[in-house]
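Assemble and predict.
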Amino acid sequence: MRNPLGWAALTLFSLLFFAFIYAPLFVIVGYSFNANPVNMMIWEGFTLDWYTGLFGLTERSMDANSRAAYIESTDQMLAALRNSLFVAVFTTTIATVMGTATAIALARFRFRGRRLYDGFLMLPMMMPDIVLGIGLLIFFVTLGMQLSLLTIIIGHCTFLTSYVFIIVQARMAGLDPALEEASADLGASEWVTLRKVLLPQLAPGIMGGALLAFVISMDDLVITYFVSGTGDTTLPVFIFGMIRRGVKPEINAIATLLILASVAIAALGLWLRSRKTD
Amino acid sequence: MTALLEIRGARREFVTPEGGRLAALDGVDLDVGANEFVTLLGPSGCGKTTLLRAVSGFETLDGGTIRLDGADIAALPPFRRPVNTVFQSYALFGHMTVARNVGYALEVQGVPRATYEAEVAAALEKVGLSGLGGRKPSQLSGGQRQRVALARAIIAKPRLLLLDEPLSALDRNLRQQMQIELKALQHRLGIAFVFVTHDQEEALTMSDRIVVMRAGRIEQIGTPRDIYRQPKNRFVAEFIGETNLFPVLVERIEGATALARTDAGVVLAIPAEGRRAGERVTAILRPTDLALAGEGIRGTVTRAVYLGADLHLFVQPAAGGPEISVTTRDVASLPATGETVHLAHDPARVHLLAEA
């Protein structure tokens, strides 16, 4: 039955497919170790300078001026990273709580306009980022709010709540309603049932939603670009600005570290999902 | 004797998707004694599960009262009702160990550690699961999960245990074994069981009394023997066990027996008491009440099913009418398909329904 030629073609196709997806990432990782500071296309030898440079530990000889400028831009970048983490942590927390609560409410209570509510929750996910970004900007300006990390957090929560909601809702749909009834039957109030049965049962979904929200928040450029103030910028916005001034080798190092962090988070997510829950 | 559970005039209506109204419970009265094994039996949609859920508190009644030990519990939320339930799906908490599942009711009550552990061990022992407390429910077989659900429901020592088709997911052998064990457990615990099933054999095996339901109403309440031998109507007769129904016209009375004839012409001897000639009634004969004999209803064997201890025959009466189902022990002479046989019966074994 097996056609060797067919299998060879299929294997080749798979290899090309993965090469297509991953080659850009490998190129960046490779360049991040290239010692050539001017043209990263030309290999000049292995170095860790761009990594040490990120943390202000570089020993490259340079004059005082460029060194000062260098450290300043490194500091800005680290500040952007801190902002990104700050925004992501707060956004994830708020979006996870709201998304989970909404998923539980919609699954367990019947009320008028429930279907409509469901549809409106999907909308922010479908909406083009650029529309959401402009809309939020106009909204904040109309309210007279100073653009800051707070506006970024609010902006992220508007659409990340939907992501968490969708994931928790899927888990909720697969849950036997008799579990909560059994808990009540055995004497547990609604609050105790939520704490001891419902939330633990939903935990994989909640964790999955939270991780996704965290990663998207860390990664978001378009919406953040619109709602971030001049002073407080996140890492993606900072990198975007950096590239417009020319690609510096440090960007490859940052990118490589981001890839590592993403892989770690994805692995954590997969591990949490694979843990047996029932 | 006052009843432990007293249901009066229970009514519950559901709105169908088409906008119509469907009475899941249409005026149900039921008493359950303190030490009784009562089975709610009926086809799906007859209201048996709704009635059970009304007692546990997961359904609210549109009308009627539910009293437990004389106290009205209809307004109490499920977690304040002193009854426990074994769910059809078992509803075990997958994220907890078996021991924590079993001890859940005590954990919620905040029972002291030492008592808690002793009670959990005792409950596990009662259902034959000692030593499995550290496992997760996913590591147990279907039968073991069933026992965990049972142990979890009895640990708080309810006066009344509700069981919602708990054996339906088990295979036949295990189900029969669990039927016996459940009955023994109920006896040992000395509490009342209300058991919901659509399996008449299960109902006959375990119950002190069977409540046959249809379309939100109770058709008959009685001991398994009453229900089987003296069904009140055709529905009960046909739902419980195999039945031969003969709508007959009483022709003449001859002492203690009367002769009756179906429209097709099959002649039956029935008890004469209370009968008068010209009356239309329905005669019920269970397959075991008929036997092969030298004379009686003449017919042709259409199918013979050998069941080991019993032989099951389907006989087409020569006079016409529906096939008659016969179960006999007499396997010395195996009738072949197509053979002509005669079926005899004891008139006293005939049960009569007034309806024609």
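Chain A touches chain B at residues 176, 178-179, 181-189, 192, 196-197, 200-201, 203, 276-278 (CB under 8 Å).
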